[in-house]
């Protein structure tokens, strides 16, 4: 048994180390690519000296924080998706589809409408309302699960889709009462964006992400047992109610913090855990660290494609149609929509067989 455990530990360390190395390479390379600044001039200065030169200011205060935020946000969303898929035993579950991102976005919209200046200067307010908004669909789904005697994961999934539509209607209602400046801010934010300035948001997000990651890593065995079913997990010694509550709260916190900073970016929590499960199996002791790392890598690559989309078009010899970048939420939706349909059709076919 010790040989088996050692082999498993070596596999976890090896795969996590490989993903970490890939992430570090992308973290170094992506900020260096594209744009009109001189990287050589920018790298002559340290981050704390970046005010001394415009190129250094752009590199250290916008490019590097943006890529770091992509890694943080992608890791949080992938971890949240991993938790919901394990607890609900449904690979289609993720914060965006279950309406949790929509609830968090509604909280952000309310913060902007009722306290416009505070929402821009005091980031605890939108983050707090995002967290409250993320809990509303979780509470609703919990009530649905308790009220329906023979509920299925598909029932919860459809309830989540309905919640998404409902929250979208409320967001439109809020935008109807907002002024032009607020509506423009809300509209841009809803498409998702990682273009932050400085490291303030990263400092706020890092301890929450690290705490959530540690909680999920410590409960990776519980996730393995919950993926077998609530009754089976209970028979195997898991205190289901307390454990599920802790895991759901952790996933909601990771989602709320990400949405508060980067907007409702969808499908990361759907695509990354599902592909990792296909590649590496269903052991959450491995899936938790890999979801955190590959979630960040996936979102950093998607953001790069949208960020440098027009330059990529020029490199291919096609005339630019605009100088604007494509928001990362649109890129993940373009990738995730077809993936979701493929996953749904695959499940229908497997259930018919």
TrEMBL record:
GO function term, MF aspect, one: transmembrane transporter activity
Name of a matching Pfam family: FecCD
Keyword Cell wall biogenesis/degradation part of the UniProt annotation: no
UniProt keyword annotations, A-Z: Cell membrane, Membrane, Transmembrane, Transmembrane helix, Transport
SUPFAM superfamilies: ABC transporter involved in vitamin B12 uptake, BtuC (SSF81345)
Transmembrane segments: 12-39, 67-88, 95-116, 122-144, 156-178, 198-218, 246-274, 286-305, 326-345
Domain of life: Bacteria
Cell compartment(s), UniProt: Cell membrane
Main location: membrane
Species of origin: Sumerlaea chitinivorans
Protein name as annotated: Hemin ABC transporter, permease protein
Signal peptide bounds: none
Assigned protein family: Belongs to the binding-protein-dependent transport system permease family. FecCD subfamily.
Record membrane topology: Multi-pass membrane protein
Any GO CC annotation of this UniProt entry: plasma membrane
